[in-house]
Amino acid sequence: MDHLPDYNARYKDVDYWDDRYKKEQSFEWFGDLSKFKHLLEDHVSKEDKILVLGCGNSSMSFDMFNCGYGSIVNIDYSVVCIETMAAKHAHCPGLTWLQMDARKLAFPEDTFDVVLEKGTLDAMMVEEKDPWNVSSETASVLQQVLKEISRVLKPGGRFISVTFAQPHFRKRLYAQEQFGWSIRHWSYGGGFQYFFYVLTKGEELSPEDRALERSPAKRDTPSMAAFLEDSDPEDYLNRITI
């Protein structure tokens, strides 16, 4: 991959992404839509109003549009990305492109049926070294984003998170009663598994998930690094330790 940064912290740098998007045509984190389309179709209807966080230059939204999803708002904090994607897909009336920070969404409450992110939250966590103990700075950023997602979701709306983070790491971040959603997950992929989380607003956490918010993390599972030694060709994964 030609655009890997010299060090992980640059994944959080908008200048890095602006420069990358000037050169890179497209890149798919965790596989293209075909890899998890069967899961998406089970949880997202063609009539849903959808928000994609950190859209990047992925073809996912365009592929969804071609599958009949007719209302997709795409945001990214890179203005280069948004301008490029808006021009590229100007012929698609169902796709909207906006430069925006996921920590402060410029939408009213109860706007979307679905909020979808693929790898965006992972990119916000690239400097973390201990998957059991996320730094207070990163935890604060993630909480801002998750609160905003919950705010803009309609009652019954779904937050869909596509990630390589296994449930024993990621569910602890999602399982907070303040967000007002339940958590379910599925996996896809071959030798390297990715995870497809569905968080439904207005449903209660299971007792097991509710307990995660109150209990300390237990180090009874190998760290994420152990699962990255034989990862897929997207070798940027070996640069992320959570």
Summarize the structure.
It contains eight helices and seven strands; from the N terminus they run H-H-E-H-E-H-E-E-H-H-E-H-E-E-H.
List its traits.
242 residues, alpha/beta, Rossmann fold, 7-stranded mixed sheet, 8 helices, 7 strands
Question: What does this molecule look like?
Answer:
- The structure is a single chain.
- This protein has 242 residues and is of the alpha/beta class.
- It has one domain: Rossmann fold.
- It is 29% helix and 20% strand.
- The chain is built from 8 helices and 7 strands; from the N terminus they run H-H-E-H-E-H-E-E-H-H-E-H-E-E-H.
- It has a 7-stranded mixed beta sheet, sandwiched between helices.
- The two termini are 20 Å apart.
- The C terminus is likely disordered.
* Radius of gyration using CA atoms only: 17 Å
Helix content: 25-40%
Q: What is the quaternary state of this protein? A: single chain
Number of helices: 8
Topology:
Blueprint: H1 14-23, H2 37-43, E1 50-53, H3 60-66, E2 72-76, H4 79-88, E3 95-99, E4 112-118, H5 120-123, H6 136-152, E5 153-163, H7 167-174, E6 181-188, E7 194-201, H8 207-214
Parallel strand pairs: 1-2, 1-4, 2-3, 4-5
Antiparallel strand pairs: 5-7, 6-7
